[in-house]
Amino acid sequence: MSSDPVGPWLGDPGPDGDVVVSVRVRLARNLAGFPFVWRATDTQRSEIVRTVTQRGSLACPEMSWHTLGECPPSKLGILVERHLVSQQFIAADGPRCVGIAPDDSCSVMVNEEDHLRIQALRPGNRVADTFTAALELESSLASRFDFAYHERWGFLTACPTNVGCGIRISAMMHLPALRMYKELDRVKRAAKDLNLAIRGFYGEGSETVADFYQVSNQITLGVAEADLMGTFSERIVPRLVEYERETRAVLLENRRMQVEDLVVRALAILQCARLLTLEDAMKFLGRLRFGISIGLVQNATFGQINRLMLAIQPAHLAASAAAGSTSETNAAEVRDIRAEIASAESDLALRAATVRMAIANVTAN
Amino acid sequence: MNCDLCDNIALVHETVIKNGVNRTVHLCAAHAAERGYELPLGLPQVQIITKVETTAGRSDAAKPTRVCTGCGLSLSEYRKSGVLGCEHCYDAFGSFLAKVIERAQAGATKHSGRVPDDHRGAAARTARRESLLTALQAAVKSEQYEEAARLRDELHTLGPSSTPESP
Questions:
Q1: Is A34 within 8 Å of B86 when comparing Cβ atoms?
Q2: pLDDT-derived band of residue A339, with 50, 70 and 90 as boundaries?
Q3: For A179, how many CA atoms within 13 A lie in the half-sphere containing its CB?
Q4: Cβ B111–A34 below 8 Å, yes or no?
Q5: Would you say residue B56 has pLDDT above 50?
Q6: pLDDT tops 50 at residue A357
Q7: A8-244 to CATH, choices 3.30.565.10, 3.40.50.10190, 3.40.50.2300, 3.30.590.10
Q8: What's the ipTM?
Q9: A144 touching B, CB under 8 A?
């Protein structure tokens, strides 16, 4: 796992970075000869972990394998916040492990809902790249394992909603204008017709955070992986990006002053606040992203804001406090805060300090 | 003999003996599948199923509660949880699952994506077997018995289904 404080895959999100934060492609596979995870005994699950770790290490020597039971809670938190594992995986019990690429761009969860959940992540709108990376990882692993496969049903999964290709392609999108204009219900209805799911920031069952939404395919059977990817990359994501951008333009035309006021207030709070809750920080950083997209905010990039949004999550914040300051200029301030880290208030203070440090040079017209 | 519910050839003949009275029903592949009979993909087989019901209305032979022989999960347990127990459940609960999957997957009824290397030969054989079966049933229905015999012989050469081709 990368020791970089915010994960190197959060690089430049590219030309659609104003709307698309990241893309993830996940493949579900099960080993032939074992019951599915929930039906397997702990002995069987341990054997699955052992088999996957041994052969996975041969197939993908660059990956590091981590047994979940041996990870401290702080490390588990980092894994969830980087979207390398799901919250469901952390909360479960029984023998589990995860394989992680050195740059955090791929991971393999072992014994989540299926024996293997293989995934690739990329910043910005890079559906094809992410798709290729996930399939290449799956191919490397497939050469060492006998995946449960059926001539009619394809790759077999514990839940029939994943059977067939076992693929989930999802894009994390920032849709503040659509939300402000109450267009999201229409988007959700259209999504249902297109067999898409729209979920919150942390995936299944999570709340929406700061206008970030995960859009993903629901159908995994009767269509080829490449066709699913093509539809997602050439029709679904571009249409949503266009819709959000058009709505932002309308918002600016009709409510410019209100929008600018929201952005500059957000910047002012972020640059001055002494205490910041996660919810507030995410809300105001979302507005800052919006401000960048309308040319109101200078000396800030989408990539920088995306990295900051990760750095202020609880486990990342605690790790940065434990490791030392994130910037030399305010080392003394962070050391003082670190001394009081046990109290909730200092958590808010550390977050505020982290944000102040990161956006000290950002300005608004 | 034709299916009691349509014009297709009957492949399953179910005789129910209740209170000493026989009643036989003849079903084609599709109508038999709807009633929960699993017909193996392969040569058309005639299944004669006899159920003896007591005057109390219960079967002496236990009414088949479908259970997966791979993991022991019963169909009713699956229906409660929505999660399957192992790879063999897909065959064990075939006809019921097919409807569930079709609903969940917007009408899709079979996989159209990547095939693992060691299954590629088997997939082609299955496709050929299905097409021969359809042709055989049509030949029997139109009383082209010589053609039907030829198709049956070709089916024999394909061998039983779900055997992965050796590399």
A1: yes
A2: low
A3: 15
A4: no
A5: no
A6: yes
A7: 3.30.590.10
A8: 0.84
A9: no
- To the nearest whole angstrom, how far is the Cα of A189 from the nearest Cα of chain B? 16
Question: Is the distance from CB of A6 to CB of A312 less than 8 angstroms?
Answer: no
* Smallest Cα distance from A159 to chain B, Å: 5
Q: Is A193 on the interface with B (CB under 8 A)?
A: no
Query: Using a CB-CB distance cutoff of 8 angstroms, which residues of chain B are in contact with residue A32?
Result: 87
More confident of the two residues A230 and A334: A230
Distance spanning both ends of chain A, measured CA to CA: 40
Is residue A43 pLDDT above 70, yes or no? yes
CB count within 10 Å of CB A98 equals: 25
> DSSP readout, A242-283?
HHHHHHHHHHHHHHHHHHHHHHHHHHHHHHH-S---HHHHHH
**Domain layout of chain B by residue ranges:** 1-44, 59-109, 128-162
**Which pLDDT score, from 0 to 100, does residue B45 have?**
42
- At B160 the pLDDT is 67
The reported pLDDT for the residue numbered B39 is: 52
- Residue A244's alpha-carbon distances to A12, A229, B10, B51, in angstroms, are 20, 21, 58, 63
Neighbours of A347 (CB within 10 A): 21
Whether chain B has a CB inside 8 Å of the CB on A222: the answer is yes
Q: Looking at CA atoms only, how far is residue A301 from chain B in angstroms?
A: 39
- Mean predicted lDDT score pLDDT of chain A: 89
User: Binning pLDDT at 50, 70 and 90, where does residue A29 land?
Assistant: very high
Q: Between chains, do B85 and A39 touch, taking CB under 8 Å as contact?
A: yes
**Of the candidates A39, A324, A89, the residue with the CA atom closest to the CA atom of residue A100:** A89
